[in-house]
């Protein structure tokens, strides 16, 4: 799922409806540029035998790629039921079912019951989480080595686009809302919990950041 938010029911409904579109888009276009940046930043740190946690995993394309590049196992968490149905089917089709586990729900609520991971991935998840500090402070202590995330750049264009999207969602009767959060605060929360930046990259609307735990 690209962007996790509460209330969970509306988030589940929205991204479950979009699951077919995301499947078609990936089949036609493959990874987005930001996802390629995310993968490149993670792979440069080394993934051999690593455990992966992907929060907002959607159909699981990112963590399956990391498994194929040498990671040992992956856990995917997503609010969307249909996205996880696809993730399980695609993992089985890729002979990765035994190396993947999936959980439905808000990661911040599930974190205490899940294992720690070497590498945590959050692709376009922070962007629509109403309380990003809660999400990050749940994920960072469970991350042993690397955290990599993609979220919107704090720009006028992005804020206008987010307001339009929020308005359309409200008119449609959905309580799901996207957000543009302050990157300075996001970086502060991450570094205060013991991580140092490794790489930053961006496209017009998105930025990708990779951090390593300070040992």
List the helices and strands and how they pair.
Elements: H1 8-29, H2 33-43, E1 51-55, H3 61-68, E2 73-78, H4 81-93, E3 100-104, H5 107-110, E4 117-123, H6 132-139, E5 143-152, H7 156-171, H8 183-192, E6 195-202, E7 206-213
Helix pairs in contact: 1-4
The total number of structural domains is 1
Q: Using only CA atoms, what is the Rg?
A: 16 Å
Kindly identify the CATH topology. Rossmann fold
* Unreliable stretches covering 5 or more consecutive residues: 1-7
Distance between the ends: 31 Å
The level-1 CATH class: Alpha Beta
**Succession of helices and strands:** HHEHEHEHEHEHHEE
- How much of the sequence lies in strands comes to 15-25%
What does this entry look like structurally?
- The chain is of the alpha/beta class and 215 residues long.
- The chain has one domain: Rossmann fold (3-Layer(aba) Sandwich), CATH 3.40.50.
- Helix content is 43%, strand content 23%.
- The protein has a seven-stranded mixed sheet, with helices on both faces.
- Helix 3 links the parallel strand 1 and strand 2.
- Helix 1 runs parallel beside helix 4 (81-93).
- The chain is globular.
- The two termini are 31 Å apart.
- Residues 1-7 have low confidence and may be disordered.
């Amino acid at each position: 799922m690209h962007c996790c938010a509460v209330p969970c029911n509306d988030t589940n409904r929205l991204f479950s409806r979009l699951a077919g579109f995301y499947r078609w888009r990936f089949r036609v276009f493959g990874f987005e540029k930001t996802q390629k940046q995310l993968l490149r930043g993670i792979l440069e740190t080394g993934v051999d035998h690593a455990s992966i946690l992907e929060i907002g995993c959607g159909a699981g394309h990112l963590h399956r790629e990391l498994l194929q590049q040498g990671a040992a196992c992956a856990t995917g968490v997503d609010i969307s039921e249909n996205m996880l149905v696809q993730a399980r089917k695609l993992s089985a089709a890729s002979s990765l079912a035994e190396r993947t586990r999936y959980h439905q729900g808000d990661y911040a609520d599930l974190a205490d019951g899940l294992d720690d991971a070497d590498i945590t991935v959050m692709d376009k998840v922070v962007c629509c989480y109403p309380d990003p500090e809660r999400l990050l402070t749940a994920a960072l202590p469970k991350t042993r080595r690397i955290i990599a995330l993609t979220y919107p750049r704090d720009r006028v264009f992005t804020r206008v686009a987010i307001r339009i999207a929020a308005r359309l969602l409200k008119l449609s009767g959905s309580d799901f809302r996207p957000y543009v959060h302050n990157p300075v605060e996001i970086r502060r929360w991450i570094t205060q919990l013991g991580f140092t930046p490794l790489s930053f990259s961006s496209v017009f609307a998105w930025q990708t950041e990779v951090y390593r735990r300070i040992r």
